[in-house]
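Page 42, continued from yesterday. The earlier attempt failed because a stray header line got pasted into the input along with the sequence. Redoing it now with the clean sequence only.
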Amino acid sequence: MWGDMNQSSRLTICQISDIHCGSAYFIPDLLERSILEINDTDPKVVVVSGDLTDAGYRQEYETAAEYIAKIRCENVMVIPGNHDSRNVGYIHFERLFGERYSVIEFDEAIMVGVDSSEPDLNDGRVGREHYDFIHESFAGAGDRLKIFVVHHHLIPIPGTGRERNIIFDAGDVLELLADTDVDLVLSGHKHVPYSWKLEDMFIVNAGTASTTRLRGNTRPCYNVIEVENERVRVFRKYPFKQREMVIDFDSATHSYVHFEEVQGDGRPGDRRQRRILSGEQ
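This time it went through. Structure tokens are written below.
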């Protein structure tokens, strides 16, 4: 059980990723709308999971910072992505957003964010020199929800081609997260939203919220996660449009319902439901 949440309490987390300010494919109206919708949601925490810029240039960072400043939330975690570390862009990141490794704690949860980017490389790496930081940050979490935030994906994402950009030390990181009983992993990078359950944690990948750099029939979107008592619900929200449930998870029984959109003719209603019950633990 997570924390002391009562019947009327709800923890809402919004995750926006890969906004790519400065890109030729960047659509300001999509980002403005996403931020407006996020503010209307009144979340407890907002995660911006990397690729704020297209090439790590100062003017791109300053544009991204202006947008992120419009988010009305006390707890905002921002981490860099591979595009942000191009052209020594991590210097601008630290100037505008602070440390590239951070922890946010509140009554219901603890969130640990790490920088998996390498300068001028698309590939990702967490690095064993940061494993102690991750382990120690989660060690005192108790019964609170444990959330790990990283830009690169830890497992292959369907529909993204050859998996050359997975985190180099993904196996070691996944073992570390399982050993520390992490509940939720939030990532971005490939612009394809998807979710997996691995052991007792969910890995939730976000799409791009504000660009048309899209694969197949995917659409610009961001994630909304609602935690209430022992249930976790993950929704995919399309700017200007409806939201769709992706996961409905029970932390006590570890049973869940998983929804994913069919990569077919792109009709919004073209969806399948996959129900997997793992039984009571």
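Notes: The CA atoms of residues 20 and 53 lie 4 Å apart.
Reminder to self: strip header lines before submitting.
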